[in-house]
Design goal:
The chain has one domain. The protein is 50% helix and 3% strand. It has 16 helices and four strands. A two-stranded antiparallel sheet has the order 1-4. Helix 2 crosses helix 16 (391-412) and helix 10 packs antiparallel against helix 16 (391-412). This is Phospholipase. Keywords: Signal.
Length: 418
């Protein structure tokens, strides 16, 4: 009975979210500082089909390295079925779709040639329908995307800025057995552990969240919370990035690295590394018990308060970062927290094995104070941007400094070759 109670409660509190809504804007500010003393690498734009065709003999070996690592790290992960694996005998017309299936991502993802224009500049507009399969486009309608041509030269910073946003465009949608897709039935991820498989953004949640530091009782009664997959994605795209650089495909080296960075940046967000900050297991069980006997108000209030703070910090961050870039307000405290890094501020990215300690533990520990500070602001939802000295900027500055720190560490570890 107690197990059923906590499972129902935790499912109710597992909200779909973007984590950081504006990955591209954050990454733009990071690179503006991090690469300020060096010449930005220029790379030749290349289609995914071209990359896969040229390197088809190495793709499956690279994916197998990631799977071997992930199977040892994630007991809930199943092996990729043989019929899904990438083959060098795949027809050229099917090569992109087969690659997606071997990765176990959305086979309809559109890895077209584009950049997200941050800040806005002139160019040929890239239709949003050629970029994502999402029915609900959300904030993507606010962004400017420009088309690229194969063979065109472009800065590596523009590739990274754009790629860090891309996994949210549909890469991890509907991949579970109870999803509204055919691949969910063959990918082997089982039933979706939390979130709503019928809702687009919610269906990706287990790939963009990682819960590693909850109390033992939570994991004992709700073991499904261990079934998360961001580490798999980070490893897959990191290994593909290494392959691309080593084989002379720097465009895809940076683009795959940007995809990996998306998940790392997600895990720096406290609400993606902690199930319910400041809500103990006993309280979760308690509110569910009283709701079962008909007293629904405590549970409804808890859902409203937690989801409200989660949504507030993400909504506010999105519009703030866009405004600061547009106005070039480089002295704003949130901008300086992202950009003002000295030699002593940097950390080293040693390996993905340290992700849980260096990234997730830091975000988890920030969960309770962040949630309390947001509650004390008494701001029910995003409505406007505040003056620079408003305390919400102190909260964001602290969180985004961690995002900046770990993004820089990952980029410094890239085996960059041009």
């Amino acid at each position: 009975m107690k197990k059923q109670i906590i499972i129902v409660t935790l499912i109710a509190f597992s909200f779909p979210s973007f984590a950081w809504n504006n990955h591209a804007g954050i990454t733009y500010l990071i690179l503006k500082d991090h690469w300020k003393d060096q010449k930005t690498p220029m790379v030749k734009v290349e289609s995914l089909k071209s990359f896969l065709t040229k390197e088809k003999n190495s793709i499956q070996e690279t994916l197998s390295i990631s799977e071997e690592w992930a199977l040892a790290r994630l007991p809930h992960l199943t092996k990729t079925k043989d019929e899904l694996k990438f083959s060098n005998l795949t027809k050229e017309s099917d090569i992109v779709t087969q690659f997606y299936k071997a990765l176990r991502v959305n086979p309809n993802h559109k890895a077209t040639l584009y950049v997200q224009s941050v800040p806005k500049k002139n160019g040929k507009l890239h239709p949003l329908g050629q970029l994502t399969t999402l029915n609900e486009k959300g904030k993507l309608v606010n962004e400017t995307f420009l088309s690229l041509q194969e063979g065109q030269m472009i800065g590596a910073d523009e590739v990274l800025v754009s790629a860090t946003d891309e996994p949210d465009y549909d890469l991890d949608l509907h991949l579970f057995e109870d999803s509204v897709s055919e691949v969910g039935k063959v990918y082997g991820f089982g039933y979706q552990p939390f979130g709503n498989p019928a809702v687009e953004y919610s269906s990706q949640a287990p790939f963009h969240m990682g819960f590693f530091y909850e109390p033992k009782i939570i994991f004992t009664l709700a073991g499904f919370l261990k079934r998360t997959y961001p580490e798999l994605r980070i490893h897959q795209f990191t290994e593909l990035s290494k392959l691309a650089f080593s084989k002379g495909h720097p465009y895809w080296g940076y683009r795959f690295a940007g995809w990996a960075l998306h998940y790392i940046q997600d895990l720096t967000q406290p609400y993606h590394s902690s199930v319910l900050p400041r809500v103990g297991a006993s309280k979760q069980i308690g509110v569910q018990l009283v709701s079962i006997v008909g007293y629904q108000t405590p549970k409804d209030n808890m859902i409203q308060f937690v989801s409200g703070r989660h949504t507030l910090i993400e909504e506010y961050q999105y519009y703030l970062i866009k405004n600061l870039i547009m106005t070039k307000n480089w002295n704003h405290p949130v901008v300086t927290s992202i950009m003002a890094f000295g030699a002593n501020d940097h950390v080293e990215w040693k390996s993905l094995d340290d992700l849980r300690v260096n990234v997730c533990k830091e975000a988890y520990d920030a969960g309770e104070p962040t949630d309390e500070q947001l509650e004390n602001l008494n701001i029910p939802k995003y409505e406007t941007l505040y003056e620079e000295n408003h305390p919400i900027h102190t909260i964001l500055a602290s969180l985004l400094r961690n995002t900046s720190k770990h993004t820089r560490a990952y980029l410094d570890a890239l085996p960059k070759k041009n």
